[in-house]
Amino acid sequence: MAKVSLNRALTELYGGFDGTMFRRIYGKIVVSPKPDRSRHTPSPKEAAQIERFRRAALRAKGATPEMRLRYQERARAENKPAYAIRVRDYIHPPVIESINLAGYSGLPGDCILVRAHDDFEVRDVTVTIRLPNGAVVESGRAQRSADDGELFYYATTSAPATGSEVIVEAAATDWPGNRTTRQIAWMTSRR
């Protein structure tokens, strides 16, 4: 693979020509042969990934002007094309690292902490408390911590019966709408 240094006469180079591709990777122009995929039949996993990427590319093209500006800021910081940042965000869902129930005893006003991150940004986190039979005790949006952008806190509003088992579910959503959930079972007790 050859690398290209641009001068005053040639300031931009991209695309393909005569079996050669010119691409910008991490701020540098890279020259490589055009791949020959004519005799390759994708496996089912490859076909699924190709379709996933195709859908992500279509959705990335339809990003709102406000979101395009946010992606452009990140792209400048990472020295990558904004489109690549948008596609990456559409492909990767958010991750919920933990649900911290140390401050939850089953009383209104107790605090449930959720740590969630995304390759771009988590848009919101919702906490739902259910009984084992699926009945919802309460549900609401967690607030992002001002000190730590990956930490969300939820203040409970109701009190299930003392000693009852509940299932606490956190759902994190990113800007493209990818959603990840995580659950934890908990036995309520009064402090």
What do these coordinates show?
- With 191 residues, the chain is an alpha+beta fold.
- It has 2 domains: 19-91, no CATH class; 95-187, Sandwich (Immunoglobulin-like), CATH 2.60.40.1220.
- 22% of the residues lie in helices and 38% in strands.
- The strands form 3 sheets. The protein has a 4-stranded antiparallel β-sheet with strand order 1-4-3-2, with no helix packed on it. A 4-stranded antiparallel β-sheet has the order 5-6-10-9, with no helix packed on it.
- α1 (44-61) crosses α3 (82-91) and α2 (65-78) packs across α3.
- The N and C termini lie far apart (65 Å).
At the fold tier of CATH, the topology name of the largest domain is Immunoglobulin-like
How would you write the strand order of the largest sheet? 1-4-3-2
What string gives the helices and strands in order? EEEEHHHEEEEEEEE
The major sheet is characterized as:
4 strands, antiparallel
State the CATH class of the largest domain.
Answer: Mainly Beta
Quantity of strands, as a count: 12
Low-confidence runs:
none
Computed over alpha carbons, the radius of gyration is 23 Å
Please tell me the total number of domains.
Answer: 2
- Give the helix level as a range of percent: 10-25%
* Mean pLDDT rating: 88
* SS strand fraction: 35-45%
**Structural class, from helix and strand content?**
alpha+beta
The N- and C-terminal alpha carbons lie at a distance of 65 Å
